[in-house]
TrEMBL record:
Record's signal peptide: 1-22
Protein name: Sugar ABC transporter substrate-binding protein
Key words of the record: Signal
Membership in a protein family: Belongs to the bacterial solute-binding protein 2 family.
Length: 343
């Protein structure tokens, strides 16, 4: 009888053990099927991570697209993103960064108004143990995890060559400059002016407009009073060309591409409004700065970071691509993507 009872107990124990092992295997297979990866890897570690996005100014279509793209990517990876708009005010951004650091987010996405003035804020974030992922404005410090930006210098060079060719390498060309201290504006201006030295019969007149269309409007009116042989203009963003167009209308000098007296216009960014002007024959070209890709890549790297993968490069520059009448309808251009969403 004792032997029989012992055998029964042994069989019960074995049955329970086998069932437990089979249950664990089934649970593991379900996680892999649902997520594609086991719980020890993949996107699960990004779930609920808090991201503070400190952007230079949402008054620009470029920054709106970058913001939309980064938020969409954050949502896809289960991250919660809170956005702070500095409204192109460096002091305001410094205050925002101070407040952000105090809330101890898991990471910060930063587009600096002024690359030099933001350095103390970036260092404070690093000292607080908060990794900073930089976009757009090239950092002047090393206190960041990774940067995804744009070859602004090359964009300036490309604009200079384009304008010089179209105007026959002579005349006065206006430079609609972005904000001094913003590395994007500084590098575009440097690339443009250095390349224009190849063309000794072209005179460059720089107008400091701080990215703002209204300033471009008034400064362009003044420039046409002072200079009688203006043949073209390079704008550090497409937005300022809105002011240039208004000025040319007021002066009765707005002519379409290939019309006599046309003022050659080249911008940067590839905004929806810029693309529309190219279609209408008002603006000649724009150097595309892919806001959608920039926001996406930077935020994807955050997800990689949270998953323990830091194999991404420290610095990445997206290449400028010339947009003119030949490719303005490309549906993959971020400006067209944004315009289609508004319809």
């Amino acid at each position: 009888m004792k032997k029989l009872l012992g055998l029964i107990v042994l069989l019960v124990v074995l049955t329970f053990t086998l069932s437990a092992c089979g249950g664990e295997k089934t649970s593991s297979n379900t996680k892999e099927d649902n997520n594609g990866k086991s719980s020890s890897s993949g996107g699960e570690s990004t779930e609920g991570k808090r991201v503070s996005s400190a952007l230079m100014g949402l008054g620009f279509e470029f920054m709106v697209m970058l913001n939309d793209s980064s938020k969409e990517t954050a949502k896809e990876n289960g991250m919660d993103m809170q956005v702070f708009d500095a409204n192109t005010d460096a002091d305001n951004q410094a205050t925002q960064m101070q407040n952000i650091i105090a809330t101890k987010p898991d990471t910060i996405l930063l587009s600096a108004v002024d690359a030099k003035l933001i350095i103390p804020s970036a260092k404070a974030a690093k000292n607080a143990g908060i990794p900073v992922f930089r976009v757009e404005s090239k950092p002047l410090d090393e206190d960041y995890e990774t940067w995804v930006g744009y070859d602004n210098y090359k964009a300036g060079e490309m604009a200079a060559d384009y304008i010089a060719k179209v105007v026959g390498e002579k005349g006065t060309v206006l430079e609609q400059r972005g904000m001094v201290g913003a590395t994007g504006a500084d590098l575009r201006s440097e690339g443009f002016n250095k390349r224009m030295k190849k063309y000794p019969n072209i005179k460059v007149v720089t107008l400091n407009n701080e990215w703002v269309a209204d300033k471009a409007f008034s400064n362009t009116l003044d420039a046409f009073t002072a200079h009688k042989d203006i043949v073209g203009t390079f704008s550090a963003n497409d937005e300022m060309l809105r002011g240039v167009v208004s000025a040319l209308k007021k002066l009765d000098k707005l002519k379409k591409v290939e019309e006599s007296g046309h003022i050659v216009m080249v911008g940067v960014d590839g905004t929806p409004l810029g693309l529309e002007r190219i279609r209408d024959g008002i603006q000649d070209a724009s150097l595309n700065q892919d806001a959608k890709e920039m926001g996406k890549v930077a935020t994807e790297r955050m997800a990689m970071y949270f998953n323990g993968d830091t194999s991404y490069p420290k610095d990445t520059m997206l290449e400028p691509v010339l947009i003119d009448k030949n490719n303005v309808d490309d549906p993959n251009l971020w400006g067209n993507v944004m315009a289609s969403k508004k319809k």
